[in-house]
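Contributing: when you submit paired examples, paste them exactly as shown. First protein:
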Amino acid sequence: MATLLDDIVIREAVTADIDSMTMIIPRAYDADAFLNFIFPDTPTIRDWWTKVYTSAIQSPAYTILVAVEEATVIGVLTLHLYRPENAHLGKRDGICTLVPLTDDHHQELKKALVEQASDRQKILQEQSNLMIDLLGVDRKYQSKGIGGQLVKRAGAVADSESAAIFLQTTQAKAYYLKLALGFEVRGEDDPNAPGGVIVRPSPASSRGSQ
């Protein structure tokens, strides 16, 4: 079901959205030196994103949410579902491991993906969980609540799966906590750091802690 935010629709991605989705990182994170370092905007990387999104849309382990204005994708949130009984669908590695990395990717990305999967296993162990791999909103549309609507929809997906949400962020820890959607900091050594591991507990574990 689509959610309407003025003239912006939030829904699950379809194959026709992919061309527009491949540009979301340079459009959303043009000022983020690290993301542009590991995901440079090159034809090879765009082709890689096309293959990644195509595979994800076809896989039951992934949900891709998009914010769309007319025919243009202006926001993307990707979710990867891990269940112990369905580990063969993608383990804990997430969307960036669906297609082999290219020579245009920086080697730092491979290291970051391994660390992310390790933290996911260490913190949530064998709990069913959804990982937010990517959240990006076109810079021209930021500060309008679109990212928050995508995250809220992700929460609804997680609740329907009785799953927690896991994510790692380099800069947006305060953003997720400010949304007041049940996110908590986990495994954080420096409480003042802008990034870290964020978890939204599953409905079952939240009820159990009350």
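Second protein:
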Amino acid sequence: MKIKYFLFDFDGTLVDSRMIIVSLYNSLAAKKGYKLITNDNITYLRTLSIKEKCKALGVPRYKVPFIVTWFSKRFYNEVTKLSFNEGMKALLHSLNDKNVPYAILSSNAQKNIQAFFEYQNVNVPAIYTSGRLFGKDRLLKKFMKQHNAKPEEILYIGDEARDILACQKCGVPVVGVSWGYDAVEAIQKTQPDYLINTPEELTKLLKGFFNE
């Protein structure tokens, strides 16, 4: 069946926000006594699940929802420091030029995402967000209900194992990209429908769908 909608993750997939997230986390970790993210451990942390990351950093798992909210409130002030990952801005402009339906599905706050796209002068059709770190399956179901779309008519593009697992839970085809928050090893374990290593590969894949 033909893909009718592309759904993109925001942090890691479209934009490079890693250093902002690390900086915010470390400022909190210094106050709370959690382990810091450093150049020595960041590569290892990218191979871990959320649960394993929490254990490695000494962060109580029950604190994660509060930390996500804390991040979202402070992220807004850092929006102008964000940049698109290579090729992603051009890809979105191409989708807009061809009137290809797409949307953003993210755990970041809508205010933050909207501010970034306005700053970058990119008109995004729709943004769906959830403050729940593991709430993307609900966002996917909400999107499908609103658009009367079947799972196989959607293609999700994300950079974390939790993105892929959420899609698999809903029966939605998913592209895992290796340049985001999770390492390619973590992505491979979840067996996405597509594993993409470069923005050029992603652009080629998506153009193959919307040129059908």
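If you have annotations for the second protein, write them as plain sentences, like these:
The domain at 5-16+83-210 is CATH 3.40.50.1000 (Rossmann fold).
The chain has two domains: 5-16+83-210, 18-80.
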